[in-house]
Amino acid sequence: MNIFLKELKSHGKSLIIWCIAMFFMIVSSIGKFTAYAETGRSMSELLSQIPKPIKAVLGMGDFDLTKVSGFYGMLYLYLLLLATIHAALLGADIISKEERDKTAEFLLVKPVSRSKIVTSKLFASLFNIAAVNIVTLFFSILLMAKYSGGEDITREIYVLMLGMFILQTLFLSLGTASAAVTKNPGAASSSVTAILLASFIISSLINMNGRLERLKYITPFEYFRAEKLLSVGFEPVFLFLSFVIITSLLIVTYASYKKRDLKV
User: Does the residue 86 lie in any domain?
Assistant: First the structure.
């Protein structure tokens, strides 16, 4: 419990900053939506002329941006990117920070096993990503409802936030596994960020070129796309893949951290 509370305190300021960032992302996007909604049909005609590759890069897809549901579908991509970056960096930092800061003796003198140390850190991490997710959910429902013009998208937001949480957990696990495996504590964050961005770029390329669709299984960003979640819901194959990846990465985290020679 002491380790859990220590990690919560250690990442408290960071958590507040990320929650504020998610809030401002939503608030700053509201002005764009009102502009789209006010122009109505003329905006729809203008957007229809944008080439598909550009719409894919911007996360527009086939959404009707004059409706709050379509606009939030586009906004979801940017919220998802921010949330997963936070989760990946958190996972890498929470496992490696004692070695990086030369304070590993704090853990070594504790009468607890390394497995319990990892478990405490994971619970603290899950608390953090859940907090970011809940803050995003709350302000999404609150602000979108205010400008929805009577359109209720509460259920859609819940579905998208659930997909976001699964991806947050996946990239959190990737961060912890990377930090547990690498011999250089400072390299974990850059490594996991590079993997995340590469995955995001591959997802964008798939959406730009349908012939690359077979690659969708190697990039988690394709598992819970807003278009699919809002039209057909969660696909069992991607839920299964997410479960397998998360479980595998957690096993790697525990096994590698247990054998790790912590530098004090």
Answer: yes
